[in-house]
Write a structure and sequence with these properties.
54 residues; mainly beta; three-stranded antiparallel β-sheet; binds zinc ion
């Protein structure tokens, strides 16, 4: 299974975890484009997506 962690670039928290590879915009829509931990707005350059194969 592929898991993709969307990681906040400011606080390093995993903002959203995707079970499948979805467009990142879909993930941001789930979180209103904001980090749920620190409240930072997530721009495409401000977060990283780490894909792990499990
Ligand atoms: Zn954050």
């Amino acid at each position: 299974m592929l898991l993709a962690d969307v990681v906040c670039g400011k606080c390093g928290s995993v903002v959203y975890q995707m079970r499948m590879l979805k467009p990142v915009k879909d993930a941001l829509r789930q979180t209103n484009s904001r980090c749920r931990v620190c409240g930072a707005a997530l721009n495409p350059g401000d977060f990283t997506v780490a894909v792990k194969r499990r």
